[in-house]
Here is the input.
Amino acid sequence: MTATDQLLFEGADWDFRTLQRICDACEQIARDELGLDVYPNQIEVITAEQMLDAYSSVGMPLFYKHWSFGKHFAFQEASYRKGLMGLAYEIVINSSPCISYLMEENTATMQTLVIAHAAFGHNHFFKNNYLFKQWTDADGILDYLEFAKRYVAHCEERHGRLAVEHTLDAAHALMSHGIDRYPGKKSLDLRAEEKRAGRRRAHEEREFNDLWRTVPTGPAKSGAVLDVERRRAMLGLPQENLLYFLEKTAPRLKPWQREILRIVRHIAQYFYPQSQTKVMNEGTATYVHYRIISRLHEQGRLTDGNFLEFLQSHTNVVFQPEFDDPRYSGFNPYALGFAMMQDIERIVTNPEAEDRDWFPDIAGTGDTMGVLRDIWANYRDESFISQFLSPRLMRHFRMFHLHDDPEERAGILVDAIHDERGYRRLRRELARQYDVGFIDANIEVVDVDLAGDRRLMLRHTVVKGAQLSEADTKRVLQHLADLWTYDVSLVEADASGTVLKEYVANPRKIAAVA
Amino acid sequence: MHIVDRRLNPGSKSLENRQRFLRRAKALVQGAVKKSSQSRDIKDVLEGGEVSVPIDGMDEPRFRREGGTRDMVLPGNKKFVEGDILPRPNQSGGRGRGAGEGDSEDTFRFVLSRDEFVDLFLDDLELPDLAKRKLAEVESEGIRRAGYTTSGSPANISVSRTVSRALARRVALRRPRREVLEALEAELLDCSEERRAELMAEIEALKTKMRRIPFIDPIDIRYRRFETVPKPVAQAVMFCLMDVSGSMTEHMKDLAKRFYMLLYVFLKRRYRHVEIVFIRHTDRAEEVDEQTFFYGPASGGTLVSSALQAMHDIVRSRFRPADWNIYAAQASDGDNSYADGEVASRLLTDNILPVTQFFAYLEVGQENGLSYEMPNSALWTLYEGLRANGAPLSMRKVNERSEIFPVFHDLFQRRGPQERTAS
Here is the structure.
């Protein structure tokens, strides 16, 4: 009888000693049996209200002040109080140390689940996945957020709350277009960012932006001076990172406004990998908690009762409603991710003939964790699904593909189902749904009319006939024009270059004052 | 592994953000407050609570795509085969919402505290004709003793408290008493030589100790502390005059009650102390309690002047106009005997209007009636005549519960100075 045979806890109650025991037990399994490689863990126990707080500021422990967080808080608080929404059991932050929040209301079993899920599953994924390695700076993020918060508060003192609010509103509206989508640039080093911010600010306050010295004396002459190609090259056009473009080239922004755009852009970039790896990230964490807790039960460290309680929560988490179920709202990333991880385990250890055809590289190799760790490190949702979604799983979920063409009067076409003819098409289509290239509208800055009225010209390349929603677009463009301080136009054109729609927004006075 | 207990951390981060949101959404929330107050009982209204805020003006725009051809992969195929054509759901209603898109937040419920609610509810209202508003706002401050403090001006030193503290300290530190020293010095006058040296040393030690432990030390000193307290001079009395003759239906009384309650709540926000006097009248008037006022059965003829006379008498005996802000609201269906007009008019112009801040006349009508279709009643005609001569009277007609707040709002709306007497 060794120490590990003793129960971790009994019943539902826990205290800090129990938590420590649970952590140690989970860590042993995570490291020795699953071979996970994690950042140091920090576990914080919080109340439900604090959890709501964290929710409304995009899950961050500290953040600058803005009314929209208040709105989200009110919204979420109302639905929580009415019981429409349960709170997540945990929030975990991609930082080093990796911070996991545990709610005090959770039972001991739930705390075990959350620790295994967040502190080991998510944590390993954050540390090892190539996207996170490329784009995020786990060491620097907390300091950077602290800096952002201080900086925004400082701006409010110096320039007034309203001016800062206008800038932030505008920046938030463009946040999803403030991301560098393709590597090539160096990854962020947020600590250095923070240090540089101060020096840059001082410098920019003195600096004169040379680009704008080309004040036109006459239309004919200036046209000759700067030819289109050279201008576009100088401005780095076309540019799809709208926030970056504004920060670098908007003619009349104050230095502090540029810094705020930069902060919003950095934070958007920090969250970018998360949006590309939802299925994998949750799948990993769920697979890890399932393995760890099953193992704890095998070792006799969890009672059967606690294990049943765990199974019930786990089953709820990985529940996938079917498309005609009122609860259906797309694929549940937990369900899909977990099912794929388990499926990979099956293919590696116990493949069938079909699996050997589809996955010759991994079928029957026997090293489950080796294969999974490699997948976790090197894929994102799109590539993960397009490589590892097996026919067996498509049959299990009974997937089918619908093609909805509004021109087609008759109705919606069932384009593929889970049969021999459909597997590859289903898998390709599902992978496309997770392709960030398709999720966000493709909007670029194409030109600036430096010679004329300094109009900023944007283009939306319409894919599959989906145009921008008019009301929202007008309002976003208004924000954009306020930052640019000259007219802004947006052209929607399809792949062949046919213009479908054009918007123009004029800057408001208020922006010039701000 | 590091475990931290954050539960005790103060400060909900959301409070500040919530206030920012409220500030920004003020107009919207205010609209919602008014809308919700129309359908609710006034008592409940002032309990605060939830309002639905339209998310329309508060959403954050993003570039969003819609329409076009769509491809989706769904789980749970039951019977479809490749090539099937499915009818579109809700064909009539245009585009159906596809899987996982469109996060609709048309309105959401926002919980306001009681104070937030009442503030928003009354925000743009103000008392009209503010001759005595200065009185209401300037609060004279009274002074009262509030214990002792260790700092203050010399004039406020409390001798007895200081000395008693000094005594306690001297006892505690065993300062030699003067009698002991005197006794030793007396003994010194005639004593042997060897005793003399002993005594000298002893006396010297005692004196040193006395110097070290002074009779009064700065730490003993206590000053009397005073604090200023606001003395309520702002007080208001509200006269509720109601005709309870047979012609007043329950519906009319209900309308009147709502108006009075609004007035009460409103005055309560402005003044520290609000008195209410309920006067009901038929052909004679009496001062009654609230219960009787609204629910007591009464019947008889109508003489408005009786109520006015009663109000005048009460003002004279209990509420000196110099000290009180006087408000009156009269609710009636407008019936009055013709002969009474002269008396009522004289009472109003000579005695009542000169001392009241605001006199509101609310003519209540039948349910489902239309206020502009009501023929001018005897009382209405009378008051209108007075008003034409420049008397500060406000008059409105009301038929429906939902009109009460707008009328109230209308009467008390903030106005420019030139408009003040015009309503």
